[in-house]
Amino acid sequence: MISTRTPLRVTLGGGGTDLESYYRRDGGFIFAMALDKYIHISAHRPAFHDHVALMGPDPENVARTTDLKHELVRAALLRHGIDTGFEAASIGDIVGGTGLGSSSCFLVGFLRALHALKGAEPDRQALAEEACDLEINVLAKGIGKQDQYMAAFGGLTTLDIAPDGKVRVGSVALDPEVEAAFIAHTHIYYTGLRRDAAVILDDQNSAMLSDGDRRRQAAQSLGAIKDLGYRIRDAWIAGDLEGWGRMLHEHWVSKKQLSSKISWPHIDQLYDHVRANLGVTGGKVIGAGGGGFLMLFTPNEGRELEDYMASQNMPRLRYGIDRGGTQVLLSQAA
């Protein structure tokens, strides 16, 4: 039996520049934070049963791997040569489809378990690239590379993505008091909305692959977002909380130019209200956009903000930074 734990993530800057349609031209940059919120996976090879069984949000019990509907599991098992005799269960601290990179997080944790079943401990970069290859190349998903890398590495992390797709991973270390201040003043609220990130990313990809003004506008917006990513990283390192708040708003404005699906009218109205009345200086929808979690920065204590968001049925997520990335928590012989 193998059990793994893999962190979800929040993008702080540079989101969208990790898509091939952008980085092939200008290179990408991501600054992100792994959360102490996880997807847990347990897997084993049963002694006498030849079936392939999955327990979790979408349970399945089939004769062979090729019969699975779960495309991530199917692709991973086939990559590792497993066609029969396999069982796995998954559970997440937070529901999927909410902008925290849950699909790639699941895949990285699942691959980590498959390697552990073979007695192997893969290099984190190789594990991230294996997940990228399965999602982007094998399954042809129009997504980027940050979620797989953040799940593998964890931490407060930078990803420099070269035009050839190679990723250089960096770690950002903050003074503990500075880190605590950023977390205390950067609130995350659950909107209750869920969406498929691929729908929004398809808009960005199609814009970058088009001709004329649409491509120029998308490239200009993503260039501004990448520049913001560097500035946001520098603000965190310098302990510039107020600058971080202002840049969050700048990011919101730039991101909304990429797709009409980035936000919802209700979220736009709520954001305008908390900026005008509750001391919020900046915010963003986490992930590709369209729902999930809303990040808001407030320089004050934020109690009034938290009460107001609760009145809108949007509870606050209390969080910390995960430092370990994907881990094997249990490795036990059958």
Automatic annotation (TrEMBL):
Residues 79-155 form the GHMP kinase N-terminal domain. Keywords: ATP-binding, Kinase, Nucleotide-binding, Transferase. Residues 237-309 form the GHMP kinase C-terminal domain. Transmembrane segments: none annotated. Pfam families: GHMP_kinases_C, GHMP_kinases_N. GO terms for biological process: GDP-L-fucose salvage. One of its GO terms (molecular function) is ATP binding. Gene3D superfamilies: 3.30.230.120. It comes from the Bacteria. InterPro entries: GHMP_Kinase-Related, GHMP_kinase_C_dom, GHMP_kinase_C_sf, GHMP_kinase_N_dom, HddA/FKP, Heptose_7-P_kinase, Ribosomal_Su5_D2-typ_SF. Belongs to the GHMP kinase family. This is GHMP kinase.
